């Protein structure tokens, strides 16, 4: 699976995928990965590509990997155990990935 996103968006996705294990699979946007104005545009592209969603909780922005995002991350060599899937998609993810 190769999503139609820019190289900068791919790089940002890889950084968040690598950081996911530090945040129980749901990385904080701007936590260990820089959060620049350009990054915000790349996050929007990742959302439009269906790879991630974001949630706000107590003023913090958290990144969630969609089933397609998990599949893409796995294709890049990241293990499934590193990712948190929003509860509404966990059953779908389990059906896809076991």
Q: Any low-confidence stretches, pLDDT <50, length ≥5? A: 88-98
CATH topology: Arc Repressor Mutant, subunit A
Oligomeric state of this protein: single chain
Biggest sheet features: 2 strands, antiparallel
Span from first to last CA?
A: 18 Å
The succession of helices and strands, N to C, reads: HHEEHH
Instruction: Classify the beta-strand content into a percent band.
Output: 5-15%
Number of helices in the DSSP assignment: 4
Strand order of the largest sheet: 1-2
What's the average pLDDT? 84
Q: Estimate percent helicity.
A: 40-55%
* Computed Rg: 12 Å
Shape: globular
The chain-level structural class is alpha+beta
**Count of distinct strands:** 2
Explain how this protein is built.
The C terminus is likely disordered. Helix 1 packs across helix 2. It is globular and about 35 Å long. The protein contains four helices and two strands. The longest helix has 13 residues. The chain has one domain: Arc Repressor Mutant, subunit A. It has 98 residues and is an alpha+beta fold. Strand 1 and strand 2 form a beta hairpin. The chain starts with 6 loop residues before the first helix and ends with a helix. A two-stranded antiparallel ribbon has the order 1-2. 46% of the residues lie in helices and 12% in strands.
